[in-house]
Amino acid sequence: MFIAGRAGHGSRRQPRVPVAASLCETAVVAAVIAHRGASQAAPENTVEAFRLAREFGADWVELDVRRTTDGVAVVHHDAHLADGRRIGHLHADELPDYVPSLAEALEACEGMGVHLEIKNLPDDPDYDSENLVADAVAGLIAAYLGPERAVVSSFNVDAADAVRAVDPTIRTALICGIVAPAQAVARASAHSMVAVHAFDAMCDVAFVRRAHDAGLAVNVWTINVPERMSELLAMGVDGLITDVPDVARTLVDAA
User: Fold this and answer.
1) Is the same domain home to 116 and 46?
2) For the chain, what is the HEC assignment?
3) For 92-130, what is each residue's pLDDT tens digit?
4) Does 188 share its domain with 111?
């Protein structure tokens, strides 16, 4: 679950962090997780969006990780750039300036936790069956975050497991769309994950209860409507993954 750990005004805020199931306790305050940074106020997955997320009061940033052909972990959602070039076929120095390396992104996320989504599904055009990005991700977590400020997530459990195989102290989470709640909870539990990042449409009180009973935190994506945020907070979710962290911050603080 997420444990509240918000510092006083003027001090460095400590991110809410999920703990192992054996230490699980009910979250006092839900975490605000900026989806690709403050992505309604700035271009998504950019240094600017991550810095704004911190200014807007986000506890965590969620970002997307891909690998260039020369082995550099970079932050971009899609496999292709807007001009059609495939990231997995490019060297890092061929990328446009707005695409940060993961190192640059993590530096911009100082003071926040980071959910690192590994983009590596079998039907992706740059799918890597060997999960070669795992070494780079684990090394950068050690250098910039430490295990207490990082959670590695993916739709592909093998991609998340590969990072934890490099560093067993790194925690992982399952991202899921509309699937049976029992299936999502069982899959996350079987891989010793600490959280489920659930698509909004599958999230209800029964799902939250089932996940919590299994010792899993529930973070819901992508929530931008204040009324829905309030409903989810009332259900006891542990995190709101949102493009508007300033709006979520106001609601969470008032809850």
Assistant:
1) yes
2) CEECCCCCCCCCCCCCEECCHHHCCCCCCCEEEEECCCCCCCCCCCHHHHHHHHHCCCCEEEEEEEECCCCCEEECCCCECCCCCEHHHCCHHHCCCCCCEHHHHHHHCCCCEEEEEECCCCCCCCCCCCCCHHHHHHHHHHHHCCHHHEEEEECCHHHHHHHHHHCCCCEEEEEECCCCHHHHHHHHHHCCCCEEEEEHHHCCHHHHHHHHHCCCEEEEECCCCHHHHHHHHHHCCCEEEECCHHHHHHHHHHC
3) 999 999 999 999 999 999 999 999 999 999 999 999 999
4) no
pTM: 0.90
CATH at residue 118? 3.20.20.190
Domain residue limits at 77: 37-144
How does pLDDT run across 166-198, given as a tens digit for each residue?
A: 999 999 999 999 899 999 999 999 999 999 999
